[in-house]
Design goal:
This protein has 214 residues and is α+β, with helices and mostly antiparallel strands. The protein has one domain (11-212): H-NOX domain. It is built from eight helices and six strands; from the N terminus they run βαααβααααββαββ. Helix 1 (15-28) packs antiparallel against helix 3, helix 1 runs parallel beside helix 4 (72-83) and helix 6 (109-117) runs antiparallel to helix 7 (120-139). The longest helix has 20 residues, at 120-139. The chain is globular.
């Protein structure tokens, strides 16, 4: 598998803007009810359906496949674009989940087949190992499996986007949760205990077991 640079305060993985624009496009697609579909003017106003976004998605998809790191300001500008939307919270949550799935698939076919075919105990160990590795390499988060379940921390000084506010934290929280679900079968919730967007030194998430949040 091709190695890639870890996320830093000066760069970010290409799955960040790729997932943000994919989520924007998905949410901007009209409901096929026969009304919106015929309103070409309405569709044209949806940024996610523009040719510019389509071409950028293709560009970022290619960069993500090659494990490219992008300048922090380029990635931050896409976050700011999303942050101006009235449905920014929905876009960011969906984008975080998409980014996690992109990251998980980057482990390669051999690793995915091994994880699926391994005995349950080994499969769990492999899933946790990959989640810890990818959370650090792609998202810049320190993920650990504590006695009470998964815990994660991120520092704004090591992230290109956490300083942008709570929206960036929502993206990362959704990404970490989906990474755990996708790779380890985690069914609990992640509670955002501290937040750089609220002035804390670190963003910290801890797990709640499934029965604690039902």
């Amino acid at each position: 598998m091709k190695s890639s640079p870890e996320i830093t305060a000066l760069s970010a993985h290409a799955v960040f803007p790729l997932s943000l624009l994919e989520a924007m496009r998905s949410l901007d697609r009209p409901v096929e009810d026969g009304i919106d579909a015929a309103n070409h003017e309405t569709k044209a106003r949806r940024l996610g359906l523009s040719s510019t976004v389509a071409s950028q998605i293709e560009r970022y998809r290619g960069l993500a496949k090659s494990e490219a790191a992008l300048p922090a300001e380029e990635v931050a500008s896409v976050f700011r674009l999303v942050g101006r939307r009235s449905d920014a919270e929905l876009v960011l949550a969906d984008a975080g989940r998409r980014a996690a799935r992109h990251a998980a698939r980057s482990a390669g076919l051999t690793f995915r087949v091994l994880r699926r075919s391994a005995p349950r105990g080994l499969r769990s160990w492999l899933g946790v190992r990959d989640a810890v590795r990818l959370s650090r390499r792609v998202f810049g988060a320190r993920l650990a499996m504590g006695a009470g379940g998964p815990e994660a921390e991120m520092e704004a000084r090591f992230s290109p986007v956490l300083s942008l506010g709570e929206g960036a934290c929502a993206f990362h929280g959704a990404a970490l949760h989906e990474l755990l679900r996708f790779l380890t079968g985690f069914e609990g919730a992640l509670v955002h205990e501290s937040c750089c967007g609220r002035g804390d030194e670190v963003c910290r998430w801890r797990s709640l077991a499934a029965e604690e949040h039902t």
